[in-house]
Amino acid sequence: MPHYQRLVMPLAALLAGTAFATSAAADELNIYSARHYDSDQALYDAFTEETGIEVNVLEGDSDQLIQRIQREGEASPADVMMTVDAGRLWRAEQEGIFASVESETLAERLPDAMRHPEGKWFGFSQRIRAIFYNPDEVDADEIATYEDLADPRFEGEVCIRSSNNIYNQSLLASLIAHDGVEQAEAWAQGVVDNMARDPEGGDRDQIRGVASGECDLAVGNHYYYVRMLKSDDDAQREAAEKVEILFPNQDGRGAHVNVGGAGMVEGAPHPENAVRFLEFLSSDEAQALFASGNHEFPVVDGVEIDDVLASWGDFKKDSLNVSELGENNPEAIKIFDRVGWR
């Protein structure tokens, strides 16, 4: 039996009223979550088992949850907001959703790159934006970096999602941080020139594009590929088996890293419980649960990982503080607009 109350609400309900009775009871915690993984139940149950604190969860889209917290104002019962991608965490931060947290446990357990400089939010799982390629058409040595995707020799060979996709926005934000605005814009223009088709679909659609021969190269988050490899759907599994994954920039900064993360809500009615939960998310037990539900990488070293992820061995990950992905998000959107990335 789950130790928590879970509410999955439609848009109209999300933007009106309050999810839970506002209470200062010491033995509960209210989480607003944009994560939609059934495996998170085990995470909440483990926290309750360890602390005795009952967990209430409201699930919805990240922007809708931000709006709800704002509408609820000082009466909001929200203690913690969880979401995915540094861009969304940054948006919540800019809207004043998060309070600063000081925690020796989080400072010791989490790498610097996974902590907001002011403790506004923390990254608890890593997601790699990888390159996928057709091994019958492309040699892995030809596509060593993200920058190579803009090389004219790959004209008409790249499948990638639209510019309104937050994962692509964060990838471009990382290029702004490393290469500067001018070079990042040149890269975006080069990728547009190399597109095999107008951007469409999700990450799995890009992988399927490579498998079908529509394109030879694609960009997507690693866990979509793992989902396809482990799918009960024969078509998805067979498509993934035709494609190889590549982690770029291994001779330089490393592969682009984004996060699933969380922060304590400003004015949280249960601030001590909120901090305990954030600290719990950095524990080995929680790290394994948090990451395994979506085949993501833990942020704490030494935690057991998914078998497919383990088969890839060690590789270099970008150590850029993920807060910079959010800070560069507005400029990334402007670049996409200027180069006509639809």
UniProtKB/TrEMBL annotation:
InterPro entries in the cross-refs: Ferric-bd (IPR026045), SBP (IPR006059)
Q: Which SUPFAM superfamilies match?
A: Periplasmic binding protein-like II (SSF53850)
> Which domain of life, per UniProt?
Bacteria
Record's signal peptide: 1-21
* GO cellular component entries: outer membrane-bounded periplasmic space
Keywords noted in UniProt: Iron, Metal-binding, Signal
Q: Which residues bind Fe cation?
A: 36, 223-224
Q: Which family does it belong to?
A: Belongs to the bacterial solute-binding protein 1 family.
The protein, known as: Fe(3+) ABC transporter substrate-binding protein
Organism expressing this protein natively: Halomonas eurihalina
Q: What is the lineage of its organism?
A: Bacteria, Pseudomonadati, Pseudomonadota, Gammaproteobacteria, Oceanospirillales
